[in-house]
Amino acid sequence: MKIIEAINLAAILVGPILAVVVTLWWQSRKQKRDAKEKLFLSLMAHRRAFPPAPEWVNSLNVIDVIFADVPQVVQLWHGYYAGLCHTAPNDNHQQREHTYLLMLSAMARNLGYRKIEQTDIDKFYTPQAHEDQVYLNSEIQTELLRVLKNTHAVSASQTAPIIEA
Fold this sequence. Notes:
165 residues, mainly alpha, elongated
């Protein structure tokens, strides 16, 4: 009877502790996966946005932390970063974009998206209205800047207030 009582006592003590340890491990694992998934989805959502969305830039800046346990992703990120920082006249835009596609593919594989191909990642939809708005905003800003630079003084005249009856 002593052996059975010892086993019961051990089960009563170890069971809840083991349950808490497994729960904490599972929560930590889920948090890391959720962070990876959020970062990946942000990069995918903004991958061809012009001008680059702040969320996309912020996502790039945390790859080293979020994917620290995936050396291939970190290595591809460093290659992409080097391409972003060196915009020389002989800049190889195609090579930089290829590295970006490889990085997103490595992230997708790590997250279990095995059926996503680089051709799928390379596709991106932007409505013509968005492109038109970007072009129009650029023209407005250019013209406004031209006017402001060529205006030597801005006069402000005080007018009598309009009183309504």
